[in-house]
Amino acid sequence: MHLFQRILNEIVYHRNAAGKIAAQRSAASSLNLPAINDQATRQQMDLLVRELLKADDRDSAHRQLRTAVCEIEKRYLETHDGFAQAKGTRQQDQITVADMYAFSVAACYGFEALPPSAGPNGAKVALGVMTPARQDCGKNLIRLVWQGCGYEVIDLGANQQPQAWLKAIEQQRVAPLGLSRMKNASAPGLESLLESLITVLRSLAQ
């Protein structure tokens, strides 16, 4: 069994009275997503990571998690019914948006369960959702991809003011910045952030 499939199997969901996976609507979104039992899922991922570390060192376990990210992304593109190449794929073999969301939550717990790297820390990136946006599904998926690429991700959360990114630059010494936003409503915050960044860069150049 591929590691990404094992991770999917380790996810613990909240269930309704009928025993079916409960659904929850993401903030400021019309998308219904599975309700994940975060505490139980984190515990399951801790156990899985411990198993990986018994067989290999920390860097090898990290590579395996990164490979799992790449594998589920590839499988999603091959099987999701929104893509032409998925035609004819059996429903039980499809990777859905709900699967990707749940995997992103569990895999993030997996990366967090790894011990710190013995070598120099990798590059840091600050990632967040600009106010007034509250929907963070896309942000969580991007966080997972960056973690899989070896970045240390500083997750700023959702509904953040521009100052959150500036604070991360000052206190966490991040280099890349990641920003998710609503197309129009978040424009003033983005403009404010860019103006502040230009001011900082000009002061550094003097």
Give the SSE string. HEEHHHEHEHEH
Number of helices: 7
Total strand segments: 5
Sheet with most strands = 3 strands, parallel
Q: How does this model look, in words?
A:
With 206 residues, the protein is an alpha/beta fold. It has 2 domains: 1-119, no CATH class; 120-206, Rossmann fold, CATH 3.40.50.280. It has helices spanning 3-10, 38-55, 58-79, 97-113, 137-148, 163-172, 187-205, and strands spanning 23-25, 32-34, 124-130, 152-160, 177-180. It has a 3-stranded parallel β-sheet, sandwiched between helices. Strand 3 (124-130), helix 5 and strand 4 form a beta-alpha-beta unit. Helix 2 crosses helix 4 (97-113), helix 3 (58-79) runs antiparallel to helix 4 and helix 3 (58-79) packs across helix 5 (137-148). The longest helix has 22 residues, at 58-79. The radius of gyration is 19 Å and the shape is globular. The mean pLDDT is 84.
Characteristic key phrases:
single chain, two-stranded antiparallel sheet, alpha/beta, Rossmann fold, 7 helices, three-stranded parallel sheet, 206 residues, 5 strands, 13% strand, globular
Summarize the structure.
The protein is of the alpha/beta class and about 210 residues long.
SSE layout and pairing:
Elements (H helix, E strand, L loop, with lengths): L2 H8 L12 E3 L6 E3 L3 H18 L2 H22 L17 H17 L10 E7 L6 H12 L3 E9 L2 H10 L4 E4 L6 H19 L1
Parallel strand pairs: 3-4, 3-5
Antiparallel strand pairs: 1-2
Helix pairs in contact: 1-4, 2-4, 3-4, 3-5, 4-5
